[in-house]
Automatic annotation (TrEMBL), chains A, B:
Pfam families assigned to the protein according to its UniProt record, in alphabetical order: Esterase
Keyword Glycoprotein: no
UniProt keywords, alphabetically: Signal
Organism expressing this protein natively: Paludibacter propionicigenes (strain DSM 17365 / JCM 13257 / WB4)
Molecular function (Gene Ontology), one example: acyltransferase activity, transferring groups other than amino-acyl groups
Endpoints of the signal sequence: 1-20
UniProt protein name: Esterase
PANTHER family, alphabetized: DIACYLGLYCEROL ACYLTRANSFERASE_MYCOLYLTRANSFERASE AG85A, ENTEROCHELIN ESTERASE-RELATED
UniProt-listed InterPro entries: AB_hydrolase_fold, Esterase-like, Ig-like_fold, Ig_E-set, Mycobacterial_A85_antigen
Length: 383, 383
């Protein structure tokens, strides 16, 4: 069994290395590394050292939003140590002679429209998204056939602790959307959805609920063309998939409190815009709406979007929304590229008499901000 | 919302391209591509064209077991069309100026001890592993705390269709192990475990059962050292994890027929050796044992392994195993590097009077062969 042994051997060598991975500089391997990978390593001041063996490469860069040139050592390893990083989850690529690829040392996360590397920069004292010794729910992968796309599609379903032990209990549902270039895996892998829910439920901050993560790219699955004028078309195709296919499928397969008062919709970035539009235009379906770091509030010439045109009555009859909606929630990172537009939108909504709750979190357009938004949003639901 | 729109736009351009991806040469994108990726493309004769944009690279190769040099076009795209490929699932890498990386156009699969590219080469007329319009079970991701490794670990649990609708029914369980350099995701992603089970159960070829996929790298999680002498130590550490931690956890969280007659163990390659050893040495725990494409039957100097030393009594008291085991199953691909050893082992076992069932499948040391082994093994269980 030489071949196998050799492979096991190599794997375990890495493992042993990683296990004794704490170095004299007190750096430790990122938790987003594959098991056994010693790099990237995070230093106590949150600088990060990246490393890859590429003896024949002419130029190797790290693209972490900002591009860093890596330096080649005589051992053929290229390394770079970045400036201190903002805590959170950051996608990154290694650029090898001009080609942006995933770091072989990193787990992959579907983002940037491909399987991408991601690095978790820990935030001191913040652990709402970290696994604890509390009752754990279940994440289920469910395939369903879509009569809209005529293809098999997938959702992930979070079932809270106790779902199996209470065979007659019916649960409210939150439908949760990803961002552009991501998919239904995002909230589970990058978002730590199940851990955040488990912790909130254990602390009695949130009531037990089911959470469903979807894939918004219906337009891609039906192979329709696309142009920048047809954002609404993109969102409305997903609305039909959600309302006509996904919700009935979930109702059929799980014990659901099946009415608008027990149904919420939320999402991040592109999914924030989608969830805002679907929620506001379909109050008969959703009583709780959340838009996290949505770029949909951006208009032209520094103005916000044309809300009254997009959501007829939102300014002329705010009372209609105020009575129908149990919650309209908007959030943004304080360093988000749409932060100013989101703030303007919130101020305008308030001036117009629209009831809403909102919050801002330190950080840019990234997953740790969206985890915080979910952690802030979920306790407000179904109460 | 320009940034978001731009990203959506790019994603959907790819999508449109992929949708009209059928080209004059009748090639089609591999099903293992990320949605929207036009390459790699499979030709009708199973040659495959790979393609990547790398205008600044000096040398780009495809490593598909065999290495192919790719050719640079004036447009900066490197391409290669391979010889016709054997149907099945094959890991591959792109080698960019000497660095083996995952193809950005491919989904990733944990194999070769990292997130690797994989390509599915379709086998004409074979669809036992393809999704059909039959009742579908559920794949659950479950976190558990291991008192052996003092860390949170993960299993995947396949629940057959009807599990939720039959709240008093107890089910038999198959514990399924991965190969070297893989993890608990292997049988789900590469193996199509749930689809194979759904199809077998729908055709009444297999009885409804629960299947649990594990992670064998306990030795890595506890950070123990390793040397090629200690294969048994590696396997025995996993045996303790499985028997003392995983099985009790599964019994506690699912409706399990909790006795040896309703408990099976099987695995592929390294996991085949592990499952063979654990199953044969613990007949009080497992009545059904399967070893797929195991390298553990290899000995030295062209001989098979020292079976009597590894499994005391297997040759001197075969009747003991014949009465205790409901099934000992061994399989191999006909092009597997251990095929001859496996055949020799099976012949020797038969000569010694050991009862077993076995089968060989066309193909090498790869996942499609292991899907076929599972599809052949599961209908024999718990009957």
């Amino acid at each position: 069994m030489r071949k196998t042994l050799l492979l096991v051997f190599v794997v375990l060598l890495q493992a042993t290395f990683a296990c004794f991975g704490q170095q004299s500089d007190n750096s430790t391997p990122a938790v987003t590394n594959i098991t056994g990978a010693g790099y990237p390593r995070i230093l106590p001041d949150l600088r990060v050292t990246f490393r890859i063996k590429a003896p024949e490469a002419q130029k190797v860069q790290l693209d972490l939003g900002k591009k860093y040139d890596m330096e080649k050592g005589s051992d053929g390893f290229w390394t770079v140590t970045t400036a201190p990083q903002v805590p959170g989850f950051h996608y990154y690529s290694l650029v090898i002679d001009g080609v942006a690829v995933a770091d072989p040392a990193s787990e992959t996360f579907f983002g940037m429209s491909r399987e991408a590397s991601g690095i978790e920069i820990p935030e001191a004292g913040v652990d709402f998204h970290l696994i604890k010794d509390v009752p754990h729910g279940t994440v289920q992968s469910k395939r369903y056939f879509s009569t809209k796309t005529n293809s098999w599609r997938r959702i992930f379903v979070y079932l809270p602790p106790g779902y199996e032990q209470n065979p007659t209990k019916k649960y409210p549902v939150l439908y949760l959307q990803h961002g552009a270039g991501e998919d239904e895996t995002g909230w589970v892998k990058q978002g730590h959805l199940d851990i955040i829910m488990d912790n909130l439920i254990a602390q009695k901050q949130a009531i037990p609920m089911i959470v469903v993560t979807t894939n918004e790219y219906v337009i891609r699955d039906i192979g329709a063309g696309y142009n920048t004028e047809s954002t609404n078309h993109f969102m409305d195709l997903f609305k039909d998939e959600l309302v006509d296919v996904i919700i009935p499928f979930v109702n059929q397969n799980y014990r659901i409190a099946n009415d608008r008062e027990h149904r919420a919709i939320a999402g991040l970035s592109m999914g924030g815009g989608t969830s805002f539009r679907i929620g506001m235009l379909n109050p008969d379906k959703f009583a709780w709406v959340g838009a996290f770091s949505s770029s949909a509030f951006r208009g032209t010439n520094g103005n916000i979007f044309d809300a009254e045109k997009q959501i007829p009555g939102i300014f002329t009859h705010p009372e209609k929304f105020n009575t129908q909606l149990k919650l309209l929630y908007i959030s943004s990172g304080e360093q988000d590229h749409s932060y100013e537009y989101t703030k303007k939108t919130i101020e305008t909504f308030k001036e117009k008499g629209l009831k809403l709750q909102y919050n801002y979190f330190p950080g840019a357009h990234e997953w740790h901000v969206w985890r915080k938004a979910l952690h802030d949003f979920v306790p407000k639901l179904f109460k």
